[in-house]
Design goal:
Largest sheet: 8 strands, antiparallel, barrel
Shape: globular
Number of strands: 17
Helix content: 10-25%
Distance between the termini: 88 Å
Number of helices: 5
Order of helices and strands: HHEHHEEEEEEEEHEEEEEEEE
Strand order of the largest sheet: 10-11-12-13-14-15-16-17
Structural class: mainly beta
Strand content: 35-45%
């Protein structure tokens, strides 16, 4: 009998716990209630410029609520700090150190999908518009997000010869700079560019012992240039495998652990590379997850031999 007396109270308590918070009001709400309004994305996510509204939740977020957690200066830069904009949650991605919220903005005929990053203490870190519906060109624009997450923004169209023209830019959030950075830029639209590898560090000094160019062949090479001291070197690596169907590039700073070994490891970057020096050769070994810097069927696992020529980069 006593159990029956307490049962309604238990039901009432459970009901209160799951009460949905109004995100379209003007009153302050708790950050955990705001985050909970975004469903968890655990697999790869995709959207197109024509499907932004379809992937959005029907829940409305008022500008008053949104600016409790995202600075209005950030929204103003994106031109969404207006009360006339309809704001909807799309989903959230949770990683070890960050939480990513995907939010759509619908402003008259313009629809946009944006990403906003928070740390685990719910402090706002950065925001970026990913795709929108008014690009005013002949391309189909799309977005795909993998588990890392890398935000791959693509545009495609068929030319007059029915050939597919494409450009793909991969973005990640970089914790060191607290901003989004490009990690992949691939296109088949510029034939001259496609026949030339641009070495972004080629003009830097190469006076230190390990500095120089190391090559496996004319499509696979690594360049080292002097860093700020003898324990660091700038590097740029370019690879092309499987008859050019899989390629990758990576630029960064390697740090010597000993005279024969070094490592590339940056805060916020899942890609880790080990380097081993043996006379005139350098062995590169991928340790972390570098999938956002290369194709899925090739890896940064090569041995390169030092060459005398200063400039590398022309494909034959």
């Amino acid at each position: 009998m006593k159990n029956w007396i307490f049962l309604p109270l238990v039901i009432l308590a459970v009901g209160c716990t799951h009460k949905k918070v109004n995100l379209n009001g003007t009153e302050p709400i708790k950050i955990n209630d705001f985050i909970a309004a975004f469903h968890l994305i655990e697999t790869q996510f995709g959207a197109a410029d024509s499907t932004i509204q379809q992937v959005s939740d029907t829940t409305l977020i008022s500008l008053k609520v949104l600016t409790q957690f995202i600075p209005d200066s950030t929204l103003a830069t994106m031109h969404y700090a207006e009360k006339s904009v309809n704001i909807h949650p799309v989903g959230r991605i949770e990683k070890q150190k960050e939480i990513y919220l995907l939010i759509s903005f619908i402003k008259r005929n313009k629809k946009s999908l944006c990403a906003f990053v928070f740390d685990k203490n719910y402090n706002f870190l950065a925001g970026k518009e990913l795709i929108n519906s008014i690009s005013n060109d002949d391309y189909n624009h799309s977005l795909s997000i993998n588990k890392e997450p890398t935000f791959m923004i693509s545009r495609e169209k068929l030319n007059s010869d029915k050939q597919l023209l494409f450009s793909r830019i991969g973005w990640i959030y970089n914790a060191a700079s607290k901003s989004f950075m490009v990690v992949l830029n691939d296109s088949n639209e510029d034939e001259n560019k496609n026949n030339t590898v641009i070495n972004p560090i080629d003009t830097l000094p190469e006076k230190n012992k390990l500095s120089g160019n190391y090559s496996e062949n004319h499509k696979n090479f690594i360049s080292l240039r002097d860093g700020k001291d003898l324990s660091q070197y700038y590097f740029f690596i370019h690879i092309e495998k499987n008859d050019g169907s899989c390629s990758g590039e990576l630029k960064g700073i390697l740090k010597l652990k000993s005279p024969e070994t070094a490592v590339y490891a940056e805060n916020g970057d899942p890609c880790i590379i080990d380097f081993t020096f043996d006379g005139p050769t350098i062995q590169v070994k991928e340790k972390g997850s570098c999938g956002n810097r290369r194709g899925m069927q090739c890896f940064f696992d090569d041995t390169f031999k030092k060459v005398k020529e200063k400039k590398i980069g022309r494909k034959k």
